[in-house]
Write a structure and sequence with these properties.
The structure holds 2 protein chains of 2 kinds. Chain A is mainly α. Chain A contains 10 helices and no strands. In chain A, helix 2 (about 20-50) packs antiparallel against helix 3, helix 3 runs antiparallel to helix 6 (about 110-145) and helix 6 runs antiparallel to helix 7. The radius of gyration of chain A is 21 Å and the shape is elongated. In chain A, about 40% of the residues are buried. The longest helix of chain B is centred in the last third of the chain and has 14 residues, at about 200-210. Classes of the chains: A mainly alpha, B alpha/beta. The interface between A and B is medium-sized, with 20 and 27 residues.
Chain lengths: ~260, ~240
């Protein structure tokens, strides 16, 4: 039943055009990131040579594959992250609000299967998009810079997948306790901001999912240290599991 | 239905449910929506055409988002019929529908007579009189009345008869003396209104008296209380 419910989610993504929004941002930034990294110094130099800025001496190191991936992860953590949240924030709460889920439940669909199908579909679709984007970005990076560290960039992407899992489980949790998509976004961002504020405590950062994005940058610009990330990875997986579990327990008891 | 509802949800297959204001995935057509439901609940997709035919949406190619309320209500009944349930629970299926939409839904409910048990709630008592075999009246969660429509009418019957004869004053005294007559409520040049003790007896004897007196019977009506009258009597 979960697979059939996931198929319905897939149809929804196509019919509502959300799939195209996701494909566009992922594709745009996977190609755009290496291109921007490659040409940013040239753009700045051309700006510097304009009349108002004459006399400034701007020295920039030549861009490398690292700049391309730093740009890629910056986009993943900002614009793509926002688009993913917007696309999926109504997934659970809108169905509860409109009552479309009531019909499914009255036909014998189990609540936990319905909720899990949403979560699994979001994880599955974003994982495919992230990995595809990584491959495209890696290809263009190699094409433009003639060098790339697959190990570093792939390791950093795996970290992002773990982070993405946490984001989606937080979104599932927010959607479960919220009554509509707007409330979902509100709850989601409040928790998200709290986790970000907790980064000011260095002792806790090993247990903070938000630290994964710093690690991604560190692994790209310096070296991959799995040992440093284990606490972060396992605590993030643990939080994700707990969030989904709590969502199921709450949803089972919720009056619709 | 023989299912232990605490152990399995299989019993839901025998129950079709239509919520008060049903909402669907607006981006689907009626057929796409029902096919998707069939896939999810494991019902043969052939059933889709059958139920669409029943609710007269078979040739509808528009997206659900553009449907009128009546069409959405019919689609709601169609989804409830998908697993071919024995029991249909419809929550105010005719509320806020135009007369045409209401007629369509009521005709649909009537068409299930003899096949399925339909349990529906409504505030429109005329609908109840039109389609229901049994009526229950609820107030503050308490079931105040639960009987067949015939029994209810009999129970709340006021046993009042309105009679139109060409010269009623000629028979009024004779009628007043009959055992089955409780009292004559109104008498004038054209009609009599009687309260009787035994309705069946009155229905037999009154025409006999009129014929015997050589008068013409122009109108004979048993003034039954409407369901609305009964409703107010019960809830008060």
């Amino acid at each position: 039943m979960i697979l059939k419910l996931m198929k319905k989610e897939w149809k929804e993504l196509i019919k509502t055009g959300k799939l195209y929004a996701l494909l566009f941002v992922f594709l745009f930034f996977s190609i755009g990131s290496p291109v921007i990294a490659k040409f940013t110094p040239d753009i700045i130099k051309s700006l510097a040579s304009s009349s108002e800025m004459q006399g400034f001496i701007i020295q920039l190191p030549p861009p490398t594959w690292k700049d391309a991936f730093l740009q890629f992860f910056k986009n993943l953590n900002q614009i793509i992250f926002i688009v993913v949240v917007i696309v999926f924030m109504g997934s659970i709460s809108e169905e509860k609000n409109k009552g479309t889920v009531s019909i499914l439940l009255s036909l014998g669909v189990e609540r936990k299967k319905w909720l899990l199908s949403k979560f699994f579909f979001q994880v599955f679709s974003t994982f495919i998009l992230i990995i595809s984007s990584y491959l495209i970005c890696a290809y263009y990076t190699y094409f433009l810079f003639k060098e790339i560290s697959i190990y570093n960039s792939l390791s950093a992407t795996l970290l992002y997948l773990v982070y993405n899992l946490f984001i989606l489980s937080l979104l599932t949790f927010s959607g479960t306790i919220a009554k509509n998509p707007l409330q979902t976004a509100g709850i989601f961002f409040v928790v998200f901001i709290i986790f970000n504020l907790l980064l000011i405590f260095p002792n806790l950062s090993s247990y903070n999912p938000m630290n994964l994005s710093s690690l991604e940058n560190l692994w790209i610009s310096k070296e991959v240290l799995w040992g440093d990330a284990f606490k972060n990875i396992f605590s993030t997986l643990f939080y994700s599991f707990v969030l989904v579990l709590v969502s199921i327990i709450l949803f089972e008891k919720q009056e619709l | 239905m023989g299912e232990d509802i605490t152990k399995s949800r299989k019993y839901l297959r025998w129950i079709g449910y239509l919520p008060d204001v049903p909402n669907f995935y607006n981006y689907f057509t009626a057929k796409e929506y029902l096919v998707t439901l069939c896939e999810i609940i494991g019902v043969d997709k052939k059933r889709v055409d059958e139920v669409l035919e029943m609710v007269d949406l078979k040739n509808e190619k528009k997206r659900i988002g553009t449907f009128s309320r009546g069409m959405k209500q019919r689609l709601g009944v169609a989804q409830a019929l998908l697993p071919n349930p024995k029991l249909l629970i419809l929550d105010e299926p005719t509320s806020s529908l135009d007369p045409q939409g209401r007629k369509e839904i009521l005709d649909l409910i009537v068409s299930f007579r003899g096949e399925k048990t339909v349990f529906f709630s409504t505030h429109i008592l005329a609908d109840v009189e039109r389609v229901c075999d049994r009526v229950g009246i609820l107030k503050d969660g308490r079931l105040l009345l639960n009987d067949t429509l015939g029994n209810i009418k009999k129970k709340f019957s006021r046993r009042i008869i309105r009679l139109e004869v060409d010269n009623p004053l000629r028979i009024v005294e004779q009628i007043r003396r009959e055992d089955f007559v409780e009292e004559v409520l109104e008498e004038n040049q054209n009609s009599l209104i009687l309260k009787v003790r035994d309705l069946e007896m009155a229905q037999r004897r009154i025409p006999e008296i009129i014929v015997k007196e050589g008068l013409s019977l122009m109108h004979f009506e048993v003034l039954e209380p409407t369901l609305e009258d009964i409703f107010f009597e019960v809830i008060s």
